[in-house]
């Protein structure tokens, strides 16, 4: 049996363990998935400058994100429906994040509610929200998150409409109905008995935790997608973000910024942070890889807000490259979801230990004993 050494090994195990429809949901990007793949390969355009004969005997990966100390400059970013990957998946991932000394961000579309996750984890929790047409329910979600002691809201801004995800169309999640489609999905589930026992049987209730009251009739992923298509608000503008600020007393990070002009607006409006993100290549295909977009955005905000980045981050070396190009920290998505699907909480904990060890090696061999010393001097870029 494969002993996983890195995120790619966990991906391989996750692919074997998950029903195909759920692995495709996790893995897939939009359209032909060029951006989803570019997010990963673009890190190869950034090389680290190895330095030698430096005194690196005392090293630390400790850092701060949004004013709170973290063991390393990483947070587990929001991954929708993570409860489908392992039994009570969001709870397991939050516990692993807490043990690793990093934040966990609960997605609006989690299977475990924010209350369940908060009760199970003593670590730093963030909450992610989309702008819903039903402002009353959006307000209720904000109030629930705040009541759980959460201080950071991650507000996703790149989902005015849902990108076309062809894998979800092919496997039926995107809405294929009828006897044949239903039989194919059921056969897929039944052919993965370990998943069926762990998640579908022992992991009940399989409901849309934070949205259960809003979508009580959504008994399947196609039905849930239909609700999403109806509820995501494509009329939202920068002015509507004032509504968010009025109803959220804590810090706000805007997730989904990919252009320096938008980053500048966000900084001018005084948001605490932005996340440079193309939604993991799941929205608009053929947009830039996030690591390529990062430097211009960092220059545009010029320290007026924190800048995090996600997309294609699969190792601690990737984290160091992102920090060198100006990011304050990184949001992980698929990487932790692979580990969760493969080995649950322990898999996520092990992967976080691997990330920390990889960051430590990169610090030592680039001559950086602290995270603050990581800057553009330690990288060589070649992105054309």
Question: Outline of this structure?
Answer:
The chain is an alpha/beta fold and 384 residues long. The protein has 15 helices and twelve strands. The strands form three sheets. Strands 4-11-10-9-8-7-6-5 form an eight-stranded parallel β-sheet. A two-stranded antiparallel ribbon has the order 1-12.
How would you characterize the overall build of this protein?
- It contains 15 helices and twelve strands.
- It is an alpha/beta fold.
- The strands form three sheets. Strands 4-11-10-9-8-7-6-5 form an eight-stranded parallel β-sheet. Strands 1-12 form a two-stranded antiparallel sheet.
- α14 links the parallel β10 and β11.
- The chain is globular and about 65 Å long.
- The mean pLDDT is 92.
What secondary-structure arrangement, pairings included, does this model have?
Elements: H1 7-17, H2 20-27, H3 34-41, E1 46-48, E2 63-65, E3 68-70, E4 74-76, H4 89-100, E5 104-106, H5 114-120, E6 125-129, H6 135-147, E7 152-156, H7 166-171, H8 179-190, H9 193-201, H10 221-231, H11 241-247, E8 251-257, H12 260-268, E9 273-276, H13 290-301, E10 306-309, H14 316-324, E11 329-332, H15 334-366, E12 379-381
Parallel strand pairs: 4-11, 5-6, 6-7, 7-8, 8-9, 9-10, 10-11
Antiparallel strand pairs: 1-12, 2-3
Helix pairs in contact: 1-15, 4-5, 4-15, 12-13, 14-15
CATH class: Alpha Beta
Total number of domains: 1
Protein structure class = alpha/beta
CATH level-four homologous superfamily name: Aldolase class I
What's the β-strand tally? 12
Helix content: 40-55%
């Amino acid at each position: 049996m494969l002993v996983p050494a890195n995120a790619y090994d966990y991906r391989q195990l996750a692919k074997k363990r998950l029903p195909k429809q759920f692995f495709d949901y996790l893995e897939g990007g939009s359209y032909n998935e060029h951006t989803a793949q570019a997010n990963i390969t673009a890190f190869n355009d950034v090389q680290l400058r190895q330095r030698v004969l430096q005194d690196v005997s005392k090293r630390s990966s400790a850092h701060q994100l949004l004013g709170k100390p973290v063991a390393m400059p990483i947070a587990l970013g929001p991954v929708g429906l993570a409860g489908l990957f392992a039994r009570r998946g969001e709870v397991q991932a939050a516990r692993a994040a807490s043990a690793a000394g990093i934040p966990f961000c609960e997605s609006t579309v989690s299977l475990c509610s924010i209350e369940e996750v908060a009760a199970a984890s003593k670590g730093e929790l963030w909450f992610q929200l989309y702008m819903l047409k039903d402002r009353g329910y959006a307000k209720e979600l904000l109030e629930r998150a705040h009541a759980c002691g959460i201080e950071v809201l991650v507000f996703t801004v790149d989902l005015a409409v849902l990108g076309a995800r062809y894998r979800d169309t092919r496997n039926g999640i995107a809405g294929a109905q009828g006897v044949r489609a239903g039989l194919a999905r059921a056969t897929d589930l039944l052919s993965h008995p370990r998943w069926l026992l762990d998640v579908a049987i022992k992991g009940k209730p399989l409901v849309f935790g934070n949205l259960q009251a809003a979508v009580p009739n959504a008994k399947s992923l196609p039905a849930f997608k239909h609700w999403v298509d109806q509820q995501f608000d494509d009329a939202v503008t920068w002015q509507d973000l004032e509504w968010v600020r009025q109803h959220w007393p804590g810090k706000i990070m805007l997730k989904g910024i990919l252009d320096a002009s938008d980053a500048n607006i966000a900084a001018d409006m005084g948001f605490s942070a932005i996340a440079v993100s193309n939604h993991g290549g799941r929205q608009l295909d053929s947009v830039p890889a996030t690591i390529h977009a990062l430097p211009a955005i960092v220059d545009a905000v010029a320290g007026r807000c924190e800048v995090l980045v996600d997309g294609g981050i699969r190792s601690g070396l990737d984290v160091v490259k992102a920090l060198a190009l100006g990011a304050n920290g990184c949001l992980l998505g698929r990487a932790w979801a692979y580990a969760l699907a493969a080995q649950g909480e322990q898999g996520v904990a092990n992967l976080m230990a691997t990330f920390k060890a990889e960051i430590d090696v990169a610090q030592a061999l680039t001559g950086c004993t602290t995270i603050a010393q990581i800057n553009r001097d330690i990288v060589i870029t070649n992105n054309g």
